[in-house]
Design a protein that fits this description.
Layout (H helix, E strand, L loop, with lengths): L18 H10 L18 E4 L7 H18 L5 E5 L5 H14 L4 E2 L9 H12 L8 E6 L7 E6 L2 H4 L24
Helix pairs in contact: 2-3
């Protein structure tokens, strides 16, 4: 494993992320399905990218969240969904986008008390503990984390490996999010 020469050093002005600009890009940049890097693609543990590059923005999160809801419905998964957030500049907008879709689809969402950060192992442990001994009403989860991405990047990961196979090329439509069922954040 290569160690960055910046490891252990103070961040320089050139490496500091402009958080307001990043959040703006999350909401305003539209992915182009003809650009492979801007498509929803699940790799290790989820969809990764950067709002600055049009590879991780609200459109991605809304589409993935709706796909997760559709998958849960198709598979009869009706237990709670544990939604975890970790420290990263886009956790709040990503959380809001995901929650709007999950709530509008009637998913019972479990979050940490007082909206506290929830590292990935906490979500995994919660799912395993909840599902132990059950024969129905299984839980699953989503983790919103920077993982090992650069400061401007993000990861939106699903807690069931079968969900990862939902990625790929989005279907072309006039409105690619026409099938997304969503509440406004205040109502979620």
């Amino acid at each position: 494993m290569n160690v960055s020469p910046l490891a252990g050093e103070k961040a320089t002005q050139a490496t500091v992320v402009d958080v307001p600009r990043l959040i703006t890009a999350y909401y305003t940049e539209l992915p182009d399905a003809s650009v492979p890097a801007q498509r929803v693609v699940f790799g290790t543990s989820g969809h990764r990218g950067s709002a600055f590059e049009g590879t991780f923005n609200e459109w991605h999160v809304l589409a993935i969240s709706q796909a997760i809801c559709d998958y849960r419905k198709q598979r009869g998964i009706d237990g709670p969904l544990f939604l975890g957030i970790d420290t990263h500049a886009l956790f709040a907008p990503t959380f809001a986008s995901a929650l709007e879709v999950l709530a509008a689809n009637g998913v019972d969402v479990m979050i940490a008390e007082h909206d506290e950060y929830t590292p990935t192992p906490v979500i995994s442990h919660s799912i395993i503990t909840y599902n132990r001994g059950r024969t129905k009403g299984f839980a699953d989860g989503i983790v919103i984390t920077p993982s090992h991405n650069p400061p401007g990047g993000g990861l939106y990961g699903a807690g069931d490996s079968a969900l990862r196979r939902r990625g790929g090329t989005p279907r072309r439509r006039t409105n690619p999010l026409a099938a997304v069922i969503r509440y406004e954040h205040e109502d979620a």
